[in-house]
Design a protein that fits this description.
The protein is built from 14 helices and no strands. The chain is mainly α.
């Protein structure tokens, strides 16, 4: 029996989650903006790059899992990959946001494609071992569950930090390096370059602390799921299929909005203080999402079943989007505090939906065991990362189509208001489209998902009976 993890070990592991999700959020939220709005790459081309890279990355996860599982070194199987993946990913992150200003046309497109794909591959190289190594240094049960929850919370902190500080930090750093009188485009270009360098350095420091503090057991086994295993489990488990489709649709809606919200504040809300307004909105949103997961969901769970909470969240998100769209046609648009009202309903719903979709996916494991006489736990949970990455690629493509069709870009150094029909298209894509996608998602879920609390209790009893008879 190993000794319990110390506070320092838990903190070191959580610190690694902060670092890796800072890197992930910087890439996921700002790579399209950096190459399209600052460097001038066609939004349509960027959409193709982002979609292809994310789909490739989703399929690359199982391959990386197999490589890690077969690794044997005196430092263990996880930490070598974690350290090498982190260092290479940090370097690629910096280079991705440090495109040479002399590059243009096909050269710049090739640069963006190569480094974004490399970023995805190297991120997977460290992300898979980071999460897979938990059984290698924990006892089962409560300790493992608590550490997983702590790491997920720390990952949320890392994402929130980037969401909150990026725009303002980029502006301040860019002005420092560009000097007085520099064009806005040059300020943003340099700002992203050196901000990415800072994030990359912190990422390496945090993961090194994790690797030094954590001592893994070299004998631990690692379960891996191939893409074939995933699709087989989906075909044979209709409840997993319904849940996965719902997760994809929810994330397409959410990521479409998150990809476009910076353009909304820059070109629609506008004004010299758009960066401050954007930061306030994201700070509020990040706080609400954390509160919804840690406080609102447990409170709602005392009064409602998970399925009822699910429908409440869908209604909340749809109402929030509808109110946000309505506000854009009033003179209250420039008041960021008014925008926080629909923002509350959207962010609170998204936070709880993130918890619920994980719960529903877990529920399908017992259902599949009863139906197919096989417990596909590792395969089912491998799907969550797979489908979220797939959804983020589709959402990036949708956002890119919006930017292309409605000609939303900055051609001059000053912040300019784009054409009225372009603004209208942006508003509709980031609000009305998510409403439609969420509505489709709730219809599919209502029609296909049957795992209510009563049904789960029934399945649990049947499984117990089967075990007794075995």
């Amino acid at each position: 029996m190993n000794k319990k993890l110390s506070f320092g070990e838990k903190a070191a592991y959580g610190l690694g989650a902060v670092g890796k999700d800072m890197v992930y959020m910087l890439s996921a939220s700002y790579i399209l903006y950096y190459y399209q709005d600052i460097l001038g790459v066609s939004a349509w081309i960027m959409g193709i790059i982002l979609l292809v890279a994310r789909v490739f990355d989703a399929f690359n996860d199982p391959i990386m899992g197999v490589l890690v599982a077969k690794t044997k070194t005196r430092f263990g199987k996880f930490r070598p990959w974690l350290l090498v993946g982190t260092i290479t990913n940090a370097i690629i992150l910096y280079l991705m946001f440090a495109a040479p200003p002399t590059l243009a046309g096909s050269g710049l497109v090739a640069y963006a494609a190569v480094f974004y794909i490399l970023w995805g591959v190297t991120y997977t190289m460290m992300d898979i071992p980071y999460w897979s190594m938990i059984p290698a240094f924990t006892e089962g049960g409560k300790e493992r569950e608590n550490l997983s929850a702590l790491a997920r919370s720390c990952a949320g902190v890392g994402s929130a930090l980037i969401t909150i500080v990026t725009v303002m930090a980029v502006a301040a750093i860019g002005k420092f390096f560009a000097g007085e009188g520099a064009l806005d485009q040059e300020i943003e270009r340099l700002g992203f370059q050196y901000f990415a360098l800072i994030v990359a350095a912190l990422f390496i420091i945090f993961i090194v602390i994790t690797c030094v503090a954590i001592k893994e057991k070299s004998t631990v086994d690692m379960q891996t799921a191939s893409v074939k295993d995933m699709f087989k489990a989906l075909v044979q488990n209709d409840q997993a299929m319904a849940t996965v489709i719902t997760i994809v649709l929810v994330n397409i809606a959410v990521y479409t909005t998150s990809n476009l919200v910076i353009y909304f504040f820059k070109y629609d809300v506008g004004g010299e203080s758009w960066q401050a307004s954007y930061t306030i909105f994201n700070t509020f949103g990040g706080g609400v999402q954390i509160l919804s997961m840690m406080l609102f969901f447990p409170l709602l769970r005392k009064a409602f079943s998970t399925m009822k909470i699910f429908y409440i969240c869908f209604v909340s998100a749809i109402v929030g989007y509808a109110v946000l769209l309505s506000i854009t046609f009033t003179n209250m648009l420039q008041n960021v505090w008014v925008l926080l009202i629909p923002g509350f309903f959207i962010f609170a719903a998204v936070g709880i939906l993130n918890v619920l979709t994980t719960v529903f996916l877990a529920n399908t494991v017992d259902y599949g065991e009863l139906k197919n006489n096989r417990r596909d736990e590792s395969v089912i949970f491998s799907m969550q990362t797979f489908v979220v990455k797939l959804a983020s690629g589709i959402a990036a493509m949708v956002a890119s189509v919006c930017l292309t069709v409605f000609h939303i870009s900055k051609d001059e150094d000053a912040v300019v208001q784009v054409a009225e029909n372009s603004v209208l298209g942006l508003r509709m894509t980031m609000t009305l489209l998510p409403i439609v996608v969420l509505f489709i998602g709730v219809l599919i879920f209502k029609k296909k998902y049957i795992l209510s609390d009563d049904k789960l209790e029934e399945i649990s009893k049947k499984l117990e009976e089967k075990k007794k008879q075995a």
